[in-house]
Amino acid sequence: MARRFPIFPVLLSLTALLGAIGVSVAMPANAAVVGGFDFDRAQVSVTGLQVPWGMAFLPDGSALVSERNTGRIMQVRPGQTPTAVATISGVSASGESGLLGIAVSPNYATDQWVYAYFTTSTDNRLVRLRLSAPTTQNVLFSGVPRNTIHDGGRIAFGPDGMLYVSTGDAATTANAQNLNSPAGKILRMTPDGGIPASGNPFANSRVYSYGHRNVQGLAWDSQGRMYASEFGQNNLDEINQIVAGGNYGWPTCEGSCSNPSFRNPIISWTTAEASPSGLAYANNTLFAAALRGTRLWTVTLNGSGGAASALAQLQNTYGRLRAVAVGPDGWLWVATSNRDGRGTPVAADDRIIRIPPAGVSPSPSPSVSPPVDTIPPTTPGAPTAFNVTNSAATLNWPVSTDSGGSGLAGYNVYREQGATDPLLAQTTSNSSTLTGLTANTQYQVYVRARDGAGNLSGNSPTVTFTTTGGTTTGGCSAAGTVQTQWSNGYVIQPLTVTNTGTTGINGWTVTFTLPAGHTVTGSWNTTLTVSGQTVTARNVGHNGTIAAGGNVQFGFQVSRPNGNTATPSGYTCTSP
What we know:
The protein contains two helices and 43 strands. It has about 575 residues and is mainly β. The protein is globular. The two termini are about 30 Å apart.
């Protein structure tokens, strides 16, 4: 059961305090002063960004902002047009993945290092570069499992000078509890990407805490205590106080639970209220940027680092909020994420909003308008696949809009496939029938809108479907991929179950045949029964419901005689 906390504003009366020392401060009526910042004086300071994700500051007071879908690092100053200062090579942006976290070295004045975390076609990885030579990008750490969802991505230097990296479970829940996997963790490493000589809880490991689903916010309070914001699955989002070696319970727990092996969050919200990404700290208060909740949560801390109270600010004012940071100017900077395919952008999006410290009477920031005809269309919504046959499939998706003046021209349909995603079709409507597909093959497809000036939107969420060809009965299909193998064993991951019908299904069963002498030695996200060489896999509680055109994944491990290279066959899926 989630913990409940009183919700009330923290009001700081600075007028009387400053008046006592002879300073006159004009405060608006009913000023929303929370955590030391005056939210009634919030200003739009930067416009025209494309899905900003991370934010870090240079010594000159400007901010570096990572753009998830473009792979660009933008330098921004209040009231000025953003400028691209670097483009990260190898970024594969699809769904929630792409260029994510960014950090500036604490010793930037002498070493000039900028750090970035991003998704490639094969993994998530950490690089560093200098803005004086932005095409030279040194890989510090790689091999973190990737997916179109749950890639984590926040990076930040702690007060100990170490670099902390949050990773998601990459939609494989077993990763979170596996200490040999970097996924579903908070990692602690040296500025060179190595394992610190001391302070990490597990020998010869970068793992600092585990049991995480998808951490996207990191912050430290004035006492050096660490906090992380984390997405729940369907019920509860969290802010956790992070300790070395702590297990935060995923996938067993979402929110608080009674298992003493797991650490409970200091506060939780429903996913509709939060979906928290960026996290910042100032004045005994945590600030959590909420995406689905379209608000900024302010959480006042008590003496032990728990939550004393919480209050929502900027609710339904600027849309989806992704990043938050306290700038060197003392203002609170908040970045929107309305062009990420899930928001409703206005012409100026994406934006950075700045909130002044209480007691400061700021001058209005100059208005900055996005350049004409450089505004891409809004990102299409998630496609749906239906009428899937052995050689064709029909897709449709929610329409995009264009505010740049040149008008919406149509859509491009791509297959997600490695470093270069092939173009499958172009259409002027929000539907397309793909032909010439290969039978019994899994396709992951996404859509980008284009306008009359040639601007392309971000990538829509992907839809996964499998063409027919002997493996489909009922309303679902199954296709397995050999992830890795060795002389006497292998892993099938992912085995993707796709709803090939036009309505949702609730429950599925996959059967397949093991070659002679092969034995299942483990599985995840499924319940297996074995009869001879026939294996039956059934859904577990959290992955039985699949929307039309949607999919879920599970995996298993098999031992086999040395030298035998055969793999399972005859994948067949049925649903109620």
